[in-house]
């Protein structure tokens, strides 16, 4: 769209120009008019025309004065001078103002359209150059972060070569002699949960949001550039940079910003974030050491302590006592034996005992937790493949069995870690049992024996129907024919008989007995006992002891 402003104090001249101009052919969609230079200046400010046709002799403000104003305030404006006077002063000002053309009155159609065409061609060339410049800047702005990321990664991997990257050094402040730099590593502990809940399972969107927060919380003197670790989706790498200052000052400020970022991410997205900081350095290539310190600080975070926002940042100076490493190898033989024999509860018991020993250790570092979780998944997958239960990854994991967040399921504390390990055992265990149970003949006594051994668990009939591929109705009918009572009634009988036995031990509290029987609520146990025997556990114990 091209807009033309015609400035002439004679209305018939303006009308003649309107009639003679090939406006449609030139792409002119808007024509404005002004009767003098002063009102024309107001129209310039209000409408921003692309081309101005100006008469040199006008009242209020003549063409010379108008062109001087334009030269000062609108140096890029295209002007065409129209004058009825062959005056040298007018011509000299027109040349000085770099007008697009100079026409003498009376203006003829050919000269007018030639001058307009020349101005429009200049305008189109400018716009094309401007569009190219904008596109170039957009491309550059989009590619610069990736280029910086590539440079930093080469530094962290210690493959950075200064000479071939000389032209890019200003991008990362490597050309500054007074710069200070340090690295940090942040892990979103509940990555998969937040990604599914807030970002439609798009990892890149979550990472983009985290990077924005890290940039926004930067201080005036401290810049933060962050990007996702390409090998581990739930971790973000941050490089803090400052011009000058002391190393201690940078470390202190970066620590504050990291804590602020952790709190902001928790408030905005419900993210549970842990972080590790490296030491400041003066040379950009030294960031490799700072990054390694930051990664080590993150890995040393003790999972046996709650990862609260205020405690989420582990500095390079932090030193946690490392707990004794408890490998899974010795326990896996027991777990494998239990699964092969179809005894998933026994496998759970072995795992629970192992996790209980880990909980008793002085420390259980985050890195150790990652290693044990990966080891457990690999061993279970190998067992499943060996027993013909399939080698494909579990639902919710990517290629090679890696979880969507990279490296395993979510866990932010030891309780969640226990849940993650138990869930792995359940999924692989059920897959193995579904494959192996079909090769053993079914006996209804298997159901009774299971109840007798694991009465304290939350036993559901669906466990047996899925394991033995029987309908619920048929299984319950078969059990009642064999033992005279239903499965639920038998489970109740076993629990109540065991309750009477335990109540005979005065050292055991009612609450403890309730938990030993699988009742998580003491009141519910007492109600069930009263309904079964007609008196409360306390009354039964009193009567039993008196007797």
UniProtKB/TrEMBL annotation:
<dbReference type="InterPro" id="IPR011006">
    <property type="entry name" value="CheY-like_superfamily"/>
</dbReference>
<dbReference type="InterPro" id="IPR051552">
    <property type="entry name" value="HptR"/>
</dbReference>
<keyword id="KW-0805">Transcription regulation</keyword>
<dbReference type="InterPro" id="IPR018060">
    <property type="entry name" value="HTH_AraC"/>
</dbReference>
<keyword id="KW-0902">Two-component regulatory system</keyword>
<dbReference type="InterPro" id="IPR009057">
    <property type="entry name" value="Homeodomain-like_sf"/>
</dbReference>
<feature type="domain" description="Response regulatory">
    <location>
        <begin position="3"/>
        <end position="120"/>
    </location>
</feature>
<keyword id="KW-0963">Cytoplasm</keyword>
<keyword id="KW-0597">Phosphoprotein</keyword>
<keyword id="KW-0804">Transcription</keyword>
<dbReference type="InterPro" id="IPR020449">
    <property type="entry name" value="Tscrpt_reg_AraC-type_HTH"/>
</dbReference>
<dbReference type="Pfam" id="PF17853">
    <property type="entry name" value="GGDEF_2"/>
</dbReference>
<dbReference type="InterPro" id="IPR018062">
    <property type="entry name" value="HTH_AraC-typ_CS"/>
</dbReference>
<feature type="domain" description="HTH araC/xylS-type">
    <location>
        <begin position="445"/>
        <end position="543"/>
    </location>
</feature>
<dbReference type="InterPro" id="IPR001789">
    <property type="entry name" value="Sig_transdc_resp-reg_receiver"/>
</dbReference>
<dbReference type="InterPro" id="IPR041522">
    <property type="entry name" value="CdaR_GGDEF"/>
</dbReference>
<keyword id="KW-0238">DNA-binding</keyword>
<dbReference type="Pfam" id="PF00072">
    <property type="entry name" value="Response_reg"/>
</dbReference>
<protein>
    <submittedName>
        <fullName>Response regulator</fullName>
    </submittedName>
</protein>
<feature type="modified residue" description="4-aspartylphosphate">
    <location>
        <position position="55"/>
    </location>
</feature>
<dbReference type="Pfam" id="PF12833">
    <property type="entry name" value="HTH_18"/>
</dbReference>
